[in-house]
Here is the input.
Amino acid sequence: MMLDGSGPASRVYFSQRLRLHYVDWGNRGAPPLLLLHGGRDHCRNWDWVADGLRREWHVLAPDLRGHGDSQWSPDANYTIAAYVYDLAQLIHQQQLAPLSIVAHSLGGTIALRYAGIYPECVRRLVAIEGLGASPKRLAERAGRGIAGRMRDWIAEQRALAARVPRRYGSIEDALRRMQEANRHLSPEQARHLTQYGVNQNEDGTYSWKFDNYVRTDPPYEMTTAEIEEIWRRISCPTLLVYGEESWASNPLKDGRARHFRDAKVVAIENAGHWVHHDQLAAFIDLIRDFLRGAAG
Here is the structure.
């Protein structure tokens, strides 16, 4: 799908003293729809989806803290709780509730938590592989114990403190890395994602915009029981999407789908983790039909 050339307006809001960025595709008289990206990504990864829905919806897409054009957290605070707070602040400040949300990966995790905390604020929710770690991985993590997790986290933080952001000699070099990460991308998609995903350094090289500290998992988080309780509180219709070629666990097969009141699981053929890139037309058709119930 070719973009029509009329891009969104950039906006700023503040959360926990951080200057956070989002884009607004206009059409303020339409129902609000928020698009939430995943880890090490940025809000402009939604441009094709936004372009397909902007005539029916007032579409907004934020950059998570530490991502895109949002400020990096000075104390490397990238917990799920912090991300949820940022989302709650954007929705509160812009008076978007009740709204619909489409979210990918980490963004899906954040959106599902928000929808369980504030079920009255979300009308429809689409989460692309946003349930977080699989039950098997969570069990392995719990088996390490809190002391082991703390030691691993401290070691990882120290390693990241010594890590210098990778520099690419040209946009083309960064583009090749983008294409290696997702071979489903068309050349147009890969170039677009790269151009919005890098900053040019003072020496002329390019680096990805995200803070390397976003890579780490905190040593403690909600328990599995608490996460499942949050999911059970979600009252809106929910669409759980995953790609059949992805590494992500099928929520029907691993049992996580049963914790939702009103959820449908949809598998997309010939798609990996980035379903909305890999099968754009099919994804837009799917969510347009699903979201229409909220627009009516």
